[in-house]
Specification:
Strand order of the largest sheet: 2-1-5-3-4
Number of strands: 5
Shape: globular
Strand content: 15-25%
Helix content: 10-25%
CATH architecture: Roll
Length: 106
């Protein structure tokens, strides 16, 4: 199973195993990772699962689709490497992915 590392705004790191086919958000929620609120449950209808993808992983994760880009307008402190974790599907190539959660969601 691919491993994903979540780093919170304070610098604390948590690594979780994420089943292929799940989303990064689902992996965070199922493993009680703080900083991912996921209020819409993964429907890309809010911005409460906002993460910063580590620059080493931005190409592998890819760019947001138009709907996700629109939802990122509602996120706080959006950066070029911002993504909604509900829109990142876990695949074997993402083993080792590192994302950081923002100081606050929404």
């Amino acid at each position: 199973m691919p491993k994903i590392t979540f780093i919170d705004a304070g610098g604390t790191s948590r690594s979780v195993e994420a089943p292929v086919g799940w989303t990064v958000m689902e992996s965070a929620v199922k493993n009680n990772v703080p900083g991912i609120e996921a209020e819409c449950g993964g429907a890309c209808a809010c911005a409460t699962c906002h993460v910063y993808v580590d620059e080493a992983w931005t190409a592998a994760v890819g760019a947001p689709q138009p709907m996700e880009s629109d939802m990122l307008d509602f996120a706080s402190d959006v950066r070029p490497n911002s993504r909604l974790s509900c829109q990142i599907k876990v695949k074997p190539e993402l083993d080792g992915l590192v994302v950081t959660t923002p100081e606050r969601q929404g």
